Amino acid sequence: MANILKATNNGGVRDSAGLLDIRVGRVLRAWKHDEAETLYVEEVDIGEPEPRIICSGLVNYIPLQHLQGKKVIVLSNLKPRNMRGVKSCGMLMAASDSKHENEANPGERIWFGSEDEKDNQPEAAKPNQIQKKKIWELVQPHLKTDVSCTAMLGEHVMRTSVGTVACQSLQNANIS
Protein backbone atom coordinates (compact mmCIF):
# COMPACT_ATOMS: atom_id res chain seq x y z
CA MET A 1 0.00 0.00 0.00
CA ALA A 2 2.89 2.41 0.65
CA ASN A 3 3.98 2.03 -3.00
CA ILE A 4 0.50 2.87 -4.22
CA LEU A 5 0.29 5.99 -2.09
CA LYS A 6 3.77 7.09 -3.13
CA ALA A 7 3.04 6.59 -6.82
CA THR A 8 -0.26 8.44 -6.56
CA ASN A 9 1.04 11.38 -4.56
CA ASN A 10 4.44 11.91 -6.17
CA GLY A 11 4.62 10.05 -9.46
CA GLY A 12 2.19 12.04 -11.57
CA VAL A 13 -0.49 11.04 -13.99
CA ARG A 14 1.40 8.21 -15.71
CA ASP A 15 2.21 6.47 -12.42
CA SER A 16 -1.40 6.91 -11.33
CA ALA A 17 -2.57 5.44 -14.63
CA GLY A 18 -0.45 2.38 -13.86
CA LEU A 19 -2.62 1.77 -10.80
CA LEU A 20 -5.71 1.42 -12.98
CA ASP A 21 -6.52 -2.18 -13.85
CA ILE A 22 -7.44 -1.72 -17.51
CA ARG A 23 -8.05 -5.04 -19.26
CA VAL A 24 -9.02 -6.47 -22.61
CA GLY A 25 -12.53 -7.85 -22.57
CA ARG A 26 -14.99 -9.48 -24.96
CA VAL A 27 -18.67 -8.59 -24.89
CA LEU A 28 -20.45 -11.93 -24.67
CA ARG A 29 -23.93 -10.43 -24.63
CA ALA A 30 -25.36 -6.91 -24.59
CA TRP A 31 -28.87 -5.53 -24.25
CA LYS A 32 -30.64 -2.24 -23.55
CA HIS A 33 -31.21 -1.56 -19.86
CA ASP A 34 -34.88 -2.10 -18.98
CA GLU A 35 -35.12 1.09 -16.92
CA ALA A 36 -32.67 3.51 -18.59
CA GLU A 37 -32.93 4.47 -22.24
CA THR A 38 -29.29 5.62 -22.52
CA LEU A 39 -27.70 2.54 -20.91
CA TYR A 40 -26.64 -0.83 -22.21
CA VAL A 41 -26.02 -3.79 -19.95
CA GLU A 42 -23.14 -6.00 -21.07
CA GLU A 43 -21.88 -9.39 -19.99
CA VAL A 44 -18.11 -9.08 -20.47
CA ASP A 45 -15.38 -11.74 -20.31
CA ILE A 46 -12.24 -10.18 -18.81
CA GLY A 47 -10.45 -13.45 -18.13
CA GLU A 48 -12.09 -14.15 -14.77
CA PRO A 49 -14.03 -17.34 -13.93
CA GLU A 50 -17.36 -15.55 -14.47
CA PRO A 51 -18.23 -12.71 -16.87
CA ARG A 52 -18.77 -9.26 -15.38
CA ILE A 53 -21.96 -7.29 -15.70
CA ILE A 54 -21.18 -3.73 -16.79
CA CYS A 55 -23.55 -0.88 -17.56
CA SER A 56 -22.41 1.69 -20.09
CA GLY A 57 -23.90 4.91 -21.40
CA LEU A 58 -23.10 4.04 -25.01
CA VAL A 59 -26.65 3.78 -26.43
CA ASN A 60 -26.37 7.12 -28.25
CA TYR A 61 -22.89 6.34 -29.59
CA ILE A 62 -22.62 2.68 -30.56
CA PRO A 63 -25.35 0.53 -32.13
CA LEU A 64 -26.13 -2.54 -30.03
CA GLN A 65 -25.12 -4.93 -32.81
CA HIS A 66 -21.63 -3.33 -32.86
CA LEU A 67 -21.06 -4.47 -29.26
CA GLN A 68 -22.06 -8.13 -29.57
CA GLY A 69 -18.93 -10.31 -29.57
CA LYS A 70 -16.54 -7.35 -29.83
CA LYS A 71 -13.28 -6.82 -27.98
CA VAL A 72 -13.37 -3.83 -25.65
CA ILE A 73 -11.28 -2.14 -23.00
CA VAL A 74 -12.55 -2.43 -19.41
CA LEU A 75 -11.54 -0.42 -16.36
CA SER A 76 -11.94 -3.27 -13.89
CA ASN A 77 -10.86 -1.97 -10.49
CA LEU A 78 -13.72 0.43 -9.84
CA LYS A 79 -16.09 -0.20 -6.96
CA PRO A 80 -19.33 -1.84 -8.14
CA ARG A 81 -22.05 0.75 -8.69
CA ASN A 82 -25.81 0.38 -8.81
CA MET A 83 -27.10 1.78 -12.10
CA ARG A 84 -30.88 1.81 -12.12
CA GLY A 85 -31.13 -1.51 -10.31
CA VAL A 86 -28.24 -3.26 -12.09
CA LYS A 87 -24.93 -3.71 -10.26
CA SER A 88 -22.23 -2.54 -12.70
CA CYS A 89 -18.76 -3.97 -12.03
CA GLY A 90 -16.48 -1.90 -14.22
CA MET A 91 -16.40 0.68 -16.99
CA LEU A 92 -16.48 -0.22 -20.68
CA MET A 93 -14.53 1.65 -23.36
CA ALA A 94 -14.91 0.36 -26.91
CA ALA A 95 -11.55 -0.11 -28.64
CA SER A 96 -9.47 -2.22 -30.99
CA ASP A 97 -5.79 -2.66 -31.66
CA SER A 98 -4.15 -0.52 -34.36
CA LYS A 99 -4.73 -3.20 -37.01
CA HIS A 100 -8.37 -3.62 -35.92
CA GLU A 101 -7.74 -7.34 -35.66
CA ASN A 102 -8.48 -7.53 -31.92
CA GLU A 103 -6.18 -10.46 -31.16
CA ALA A 104 -5.46 -9.56 -27.52
CA ASN A 105 -6.88 -12.05 -25.04
CA PRO A 106 -9.64 -11.19 -22.57
CA GLY A 107 -8.10 -10.38 -19.22
CA GLU A 108 -4.84 -9.02 -20.62
CA ARG A 109 -3.81 -5.91 -18.74
CA ILE A 110 -3.26 -2.71 -20.72
CA TRP A 111 -0.26 -0.44 -20.11
CA PHE A 112 1.00 2.95 -21.24
CA GLY A 113 4.39 3.41 -22.87
CA SER A 114 6.77 1.33 -24.94
CA GLU A 115 6.59 -2.41 -25.58
CA ASP A 116 9.49 -2.89 -23.15
CA GLU A 117 7.54 -1.36 -20.26
CA LYS A 118 4.92 -4.13 -20.05
CA ASP A 119 6.78 -5.98 -17.31
CA ASN A 120 7.30 -2.82 -15.21
CA GLN A 121 3.64 -2.16 -14.42
CA PRO A 122 2.89 -1.51 -10.77
CA GLU A 123 0.33 -3.68 -9.02
CA ALA A 124 -3.18 -2.41 -9.72
CA ALA A 125 -4.81 -0.46 -6.90
CA LYS A 126 -7.82 -1.81 -5.03
CA PRO A 127 -11.24 -0.32 -5.88
CA ASN A 128 -11.36 1.56 -2.55
CA GLN A 129 -8.00 3.19 -3.34
CA ILE A 130 -9.18 4.17 -6.84
CA GLN A 131 -12.20 5.85 -5.29
CA LYS A 132 -10.53 7.46 -2.24
CA LYS A 133 -7.52 8.81 -4.13
CA LYS A 134 -9.67 9.80 -7.14
CA ILE A 135 -7.16 8.09 -9.43
CA TRP A 136 -9.59 7.74 -12.36
CA GLU A 137 -10.52 11.43 -12.07
CA LEU A 138 -6.81 12.33 -12.18
CA VAL A 139 -5.99 10.13 -15.17
CA GLN A 140 -9.11 10.45 -17.36
CA PRO A 141 -8.54 14.06 -18.57
CA HIS A 142 -5.19 12.94 -20.02
CA LEU A 143 -6.67 10.03 -22.04
CA LYS A 144 -7.25 11.01 -25.66
CA THR A 145 -6.88 9.68 -29.16
CA ASP A 146 -4.30 11.27 -31.44
CA VAL A 147 -4.62 12.23 -35.13
CA SER A 148 -4.22 8.56 -36.12
CA CYS A 149 -6.97 7.46 -33.64
CA THR A 150 -4.41 5.81 -31.31
CA ALA A 151 -5.31 5.87 -27.61
CA MET A 152 -2.82 7.93 -25.62
CA LEU A 153 -2.11 8.97 -22.04
CA GLY A 154 -0.45 12.30 -22.76
CA GLU A 155 2.51 11.24 -24.93
CA HIS A 156 2.37 7.57 -23.87
CA VAL A 157 0.67 4.98 -26.11
CA MET A 158 -1.98 2.62 -24.69
CA ARG A 159 -0.83 -0.94 -25.52
CA THR A 160 -1.69 -4.62 -25.48
CA SER A 161 0.71 -7.45 -26.28
CA VAL A 162 -0.47 -7.37 -29.92
CA GLY A 163 -0.08 -3.64 -30.47
CA THR A 164 -1.49 -0.24 -29.73
CA VAL A 165 -5.11 0.43 -28.79
CA ALA A 166 -7.08 2.59 -31.21
CA CYS A 167 -10.57 3.51 -32.24
CA GLN A 168 -11.72 3.39 -35.83
CA SER A 169 -12.64 6.98 -36.55
CA LEU A 170 -12.34 9.51 -33.69
CA GLN A 171 -9.25 11.70 -33.97
CA ASN A 172 -8.21 13.91 -31.05
CA ALA A 173 -11.12 12.63 -28.95
CA ASN A 174 -11.46 12.30 -25.20
CA ILE A 175 -11.49 8.75 -23.79
CA SER A 176 -13.83 7.95 -20.94
Quick gist of this model?
The chain contains 4 helices and 13 strands. With about 180 residues, the protein is of the alpha+beta class. It comes from Vicia faba (Broad bean).
Properties at a glance:
176 residues; alpha+beta; OB fold (Dihydrolipoamide Acetyltransferase, E2P); 6-stranded antiparallel sheet; 5-stranded antiparallel sheet; 4 helices; 13 strands; 15% helix; disordered N terminus; tRNA binding; tRNA-binding domain-containing protein; tRNA-bd_dom; tRNA-binding
How are the elements arranged and paired?
Layout: H1 2-10, H2 12-18, E1 22-32, E2 40-45, E3 52-56, E4 71-75, E5 81-83, E6 86-88, E7 91-94, E8 96-97, E9 111-112, H3 127-132, H4 135-139, E10 143-145, E11 151-153, E12 156-160, E13 163-166
Antiparallel strand pairs: 1-2, 1-4, 2-3, 4-7, 5-6, 8-13, 9-12, 10-11, 11-12, 12-13
Helix pairs in contact: 1-2
Domain TRNA-binding: 16-124
Organism: Vicia faba (Broad bean)
InterPro entries: NA-bd_OB-fold, tRNA-bd_dom, Tyrosine-tRNA_ligase_regulator
